[in-house]
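Tutorial sheet, problem 5. The two components below are modelled jointly, 920 residues in total.
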Amino acid sequence: MSNQLLELESFLQKDQIKTDEESLKYWGKDWTTYFDIKASAIVFPRSTEDVVALVKWARKNKIALVPSGGRTGLSGSAAATQGEVVVSFDQMNKIKDFSPIDQSVIIEPGVVTEALQEFAHKNQLFYPVDFAATGSSQMGGNIATNAGGIKVVRYGLTRDWVAGLKVVTGTGEVLELNNGLVKNATGYDLRHLFIGSEGTLGFITEATIKLAPVPPPMKVLVMAVSGLDAVMKIFAEFKTKTSLVAFEMFSDKALAKVLENTGLPAPLETQSPFYVLSEVETRNEQDEEHVLGVFEKCLEEGWVVDGVLSQSDVQATTFWRYREDISESLAKYSPYKNDIAVTISKVPPFMADLDKVLSTAYPTWEVVWFGHIGDGNLHINILRPEGMSKEEFVKECRKVDVMVFDTVKKYKGSISAEHGVGLTKKSFLTYTRSEAEIGLMKQIKAAFDPDNIMNPGKVI
Amino acid sequence: MSNQLLELESFLQKDQIKTDEESLKYWGKDWTTYFDIKASAIVFPRSTEDVVALVKWARKNKIALVPSGGRTGLSGSAAATQGEVVVSFDQMNKIKDFSPIDQSVIIEPGVVTEALQEFAHKNQLFYPVDFAATGSSQMGGNIATNAGGIKVVRYGLTRDWVAGLKVVTGTGEVLELNNGLVKNATGYDLRHLFIGSEGTLGFITEATIKLAPVPPPMKVLVMAVSGLDAVMKIFAEFKTKTSLVAFEMFSDKALAKVLENTGLPAPLETQSPFYVLSEVETRNEQDEEHVLGVFEKCLEEGWVVDGVLSQSDVQATTFWRYREDISESLAKYSPYKNDIAVTISKVPPFMADLDKVLSTAYPTWEVVWFGHIGDGNLHINILRPEGMSKEEFVKECRKVDVMVFDTVKKYKGSISAEHGVGLTKKSFLTYTRSEAEIGLMKQIKAAFDPDNIMNPGKVI
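Model answer (structure tokens):
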């Protein structure tokens, strides 16, 4: 170990420092696989004080720090590629306080999302931000990337559940932001600046998270839909008239791949270009009748061609598989993926426009669409054509990126709906944010992290 | 007019500039009355381009600008006290676009809150941020102060309804922040920095505002409660088990003043130190029965001593008067007022602590409490003792300020729950925000407004 790294032992225990190759590889990255990982050490703080000491040490020695949570990120934000020291929050994973009256918890950043969900459940409450990686993702990472997921229509993003943050900035200063208050009109809300900042302004060492009441029972509807415009009309109808929790869309191609891969029976006899999975709260029988009324209106209007309502929780879970198994069912095609968003109403023209651009450039390629229509968040997947090598496909996909982001820009959309910017989308940031905004972000970064040691080279 | 002011006519119409004494006084201030108003001119931009031209003119001439909305603020944020030019958004009051699918509107900042509420209503939607000044307050001001109000428990603050902002910074740059997107994980969310910044970073010239579905029918309960701890327990019960919209508390003294002033009959026969007004959504009869069940549990537990449920909308409106008429009923005592917040669970010890401090210093003074308990937002009112002159009382109240804010600080609360900082609370900001935070706020201010021309001297 270098002298600088040895100095870590003056304020950390030996078991809080790892420098073996295996650890450097394991903790040095997130779920992205295409970066060369080069970490100098992995450190495991156990307190805010440890993090302060680490930042002061890094500042003195001009060493860059990379924050590391559950390492489930998809943007390379937690990847160490320049010899950084990785700060893992694995050992700061306590739920420190719970207030049933405030309906909130004070947690350390390393608390795994699922552990928080289970804690809430045990206390007759609910943590509603839910996505595929809840079993490993950590709350600190969720906050730093403003994680979204499948219930955003009803419950919003991680941002909406953060009532307070304790952070250590790049100067080693500890800030206690908002202290869990509901109302606090005292100047700029720096808490919101940290949410989604991907560790570039400072590291989160504690968070006050709000919890929701336990949700009422749910019903899941799968509907075959005549076209994208009808999808929009069904959405507006369900959003205004029911207590809508999720509204997911997938194309016939996506469904075909799921049926092929899983052996599940088709949900409906009718074939349609698009399908919608809608989850709604039904507190009682009257609610249920009301939901059926909304569904029947959509049928009468001709928006829905065919549909089915879950008759049990088991059936609801099966219905969800038509949507949730898409990614896995496409995996063998090693598809090009992108996670983009436009405002909800622009989904149909955006998809039509991008489909046209892609079919002109690549007439034989198979494009598979699915997404959280309720948030305008689309997942585009392009399957690698048979016979094309992975290398050639990846090369071609760099051109596809530009086509996708050009179209996103045309519709004033987002090049990263929920996966963040990190390293993967840094060079495309101008497609969503203006030069003036990026200039201001850089000035803000310099105020919080004047030595550029907090996750440098990420986002901006 | 000075040459500098004459220059305004090169890019504004004559009827967009006012310099007569009456106008200077009228547009030069908000609802606060104790500042000496000294405005140089009032200007009325009609477009983002007008605002850009104004900022560039101000920058060149080193003239300070004060933004002005409905002038209903209570912190002096829109008061011109140093010869500033006031930028009134009265002529930028159009609803420019409405999307029923996105359930959002694009509005100019001068749209009056009530006009937006009415527009939403006409389109079978709902704008839920609601407070006393909705008839005159403008949306730009609501956003700049992150207005709250009486339905925060259910619908959150103005912040939660802003999907996008167009702003002009202190350099004359136009930023389009978030473009109405639901999901957008592309770096620092500058939109949230502007919300609550009281015009010190730049001026809002357009906003995308989300609308909610029309709420179901409501029931209002008035309950006599045995003590503050019981208030907390009732809150937790209603918050987790019903669809709670408002949860307001007032003391027996507050109720007595309302009855005395309005001639309303007492809501309940039982006398209690505290009363709670709770508003809940009831979609159907089953919901209503469920709410009654929750109420009965609170009775059985002994938390509620007596209570009454509204049997009609007319009765619900009458019940609200017990809470809404408090301010007016206290007005003749020209009371000391403060708008403060702590986390909900800290309300009882905070109130007990402050009551003790005040009764020790002023044993004969009458302290009247009420507030939005569901957000930890308390309104403390101290009545001017009979025989004490206004001047003497105001002087004494400066000492009360320090006692109040010392106690707020002890409980990590907010010195301004929803009225902002402006001029009135600027010198107390350190009671809620740390020196480090204030230092960072100043650096952020300098990045957006390097010449310090955007509402200078306010907040920080």
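Marking note: Residues 390-410 of chain B form the longest helix (21 residues). Full credit if you identified this.
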